């Protein structure tokens, strides 16, 4: 054991002491999920637990965001972040603590709610790490900022906390960390230097036609045909306007037009999603989308200019090279064979809005959450894609252990790579 790993192992000796309440809390949060910007119950549990561990607590930042501060003499400031919100998904895991919750979403619709992305894991692990760090102050110096963020799923929770004065509530941050549970074997930890999560943009495009009877198409500008031409032409952006070395995913996920087979409507609404790993490429593709849509509307003699609405935009997540190298070394030493490099993910996050706003380098890593034997059986059969539920699936259910232990350990190990005496 190296000198560098001793403080983390010493702090984590108390992990068995918190395991029971962590597991109970996880089941509680899983059973009581809350939609983005509605995380009041979760935020209350978080604040109560932080105060019980001796943290100075600031609640209501960005709506339901919670920050806990623990200063232990002078030293670096490390920010650890967890997201709290759930998804409008009907749970189908069959677990005894499965969610049966429903809630009213932002559009006024009654929807089922489930922690289908593992944010309940993130909250529980960070509360455990915060408690262990507070109990092991003889092994480290500095300040821990435990940040619990709302509304990650809609991409504006981090920015909401920043805009609501986050920087005034916390000291200057030296480094920031976040993690996510993934459909990989439980117990594994992985990192990746550089772009690790894609930027994501959703766009709603409304194009206009001229309505008429289906028997008299000469009197119409058909928005269905116009929309079809746009869909086909947009596919050429990736194949003909993006360099082969750049990764771009462009998906048209929804087209809505018309109301009856013999009626030509007067508009079509297309919704698309874009994933990119480079800001210049992102801007170029967004510009190309607008250019193509406008040109197709003119080619069809559309009576009105198209309308574009960007929504649910997520920033690019780019892990700092030096920070990631230091965390990776600490993980490799602590976890041994359980540490593995993580490939870049096509999913998206808004975590980076926080360290970018406070001027701190950061790294973001993944932990596995799938029963190891189940995963191995699926892998051996070549059926991982079919048999292993992924995030946002109604059957996504991380095994409680060793998932919680691993996530808690990873946060402590990363923090003490900066804070250890």
TrEMBL record:
Free-text comment on the cofactor: The Mn(2+) ion enhances activity.
Cofactor(s) it depends on: Mn(2+)
InterPro entries hit by this protein: Amidohydrolase, Bact_exopeptidase_dim_dom, Peptidase_M20, Peptidase_M20_dimer
GO molecular function: hydrolase activity; metal ion binding
UniProt cross-references to Pfam families, sorted A to Z: M20_dimer, Peptidase_M20
Binding sites annotated in the UniProt record for Mn(2+): 117, 119, 153, 180
Gene3D superfamilies: 3.30.70.360, Zn peptidases
Residues of the Peptidase M20 dimerisation domain: 201-297
UniProt KW keywords: Hydrolase, Manganese, Metal-binding
Name by which UniProt lists this protein: Amidohydrolase
């Amino acid at each position: 054991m190296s000198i560098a790993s001793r403080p983390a192992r010493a702090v984590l000796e108390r992990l068995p002491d918190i395991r029971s309440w962590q597991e109970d809390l996880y089941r509680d949060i899983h059973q009581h999920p809350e939609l983005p910007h509605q995380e009041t119950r979760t935020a209350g549990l978080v604040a109560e637990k932080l105060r019980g561990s001796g943290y100075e607590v600031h609640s209501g930042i960005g709506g339901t965001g919670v920050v806990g501060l623990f200063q232990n003499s002078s030293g670096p400031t490390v920010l650890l972040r967890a997201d709290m919100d759930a998804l409008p998904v009907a749970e189908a895991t069959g677990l005894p603590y499965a969610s049966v919750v429903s809630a009213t979403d932002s559009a006024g619709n009654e929807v089922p709610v489930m922690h289908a992305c593992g944010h309940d894991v993130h909250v529980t692990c960070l509360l455990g790490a915060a408690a262990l760090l507070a109990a092991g102050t003889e092994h480290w110096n500095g300040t821990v900022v435990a940040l619990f963020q709302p509304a990650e799923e809609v991409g504006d929770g981090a920015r909401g906390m920043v805009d609501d004065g986050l920087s005034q509530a916390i000291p200057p941050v030296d480094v920031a960390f976040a993690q996510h549970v993934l459909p990989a074997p439980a117990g594994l930890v992985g990192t990746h230097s550089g772009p690790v999560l894609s930027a994501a943009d959703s766009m709603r495009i409304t194009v206009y036609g001229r309505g008429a009877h289906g028997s008299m198409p000469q009197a119409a500008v058909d928005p269905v045909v116009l929309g079809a031409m746009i869909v086909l032409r947009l596919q050429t952006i990736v194949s003909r306007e993006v360099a082969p070395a750049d990764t771009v995913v462009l998906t048209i996920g929804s087209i809505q037009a018309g109301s009856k087979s013999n009626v030509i409507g007067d508009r079509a609404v297309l919704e698309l999603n874009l994933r990119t790993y480079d800001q210049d490429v992102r801007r170029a593709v967004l510009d190309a989308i607008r250019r193509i849509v406008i040109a197709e509307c003119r080619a069809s003699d559309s009576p009105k200019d198209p309308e574009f609405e960007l929504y649910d935009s997520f920033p690019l997540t780019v892990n700092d090279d030096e920070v990631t190298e230091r965390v990776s070394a600490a993980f490799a030493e602590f976890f041994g064979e359980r540490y593995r490099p993580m490939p870049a993910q096509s999913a998206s996050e808004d975590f980076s809005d926080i360290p970018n706003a406070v001027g701190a380098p950061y790294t973001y890593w993944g932990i596995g959450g799938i029963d190891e034997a189940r995963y191995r059986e699926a892998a051996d059969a070549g059926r991982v894609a079919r048999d292993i539920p992924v995030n946002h699936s109604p059957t996504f259910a991380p095994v409680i252990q060793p998932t919680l232990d691993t996530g808690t350990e990873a946060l402590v190990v990363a923090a003490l790579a900066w804070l250890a005496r």
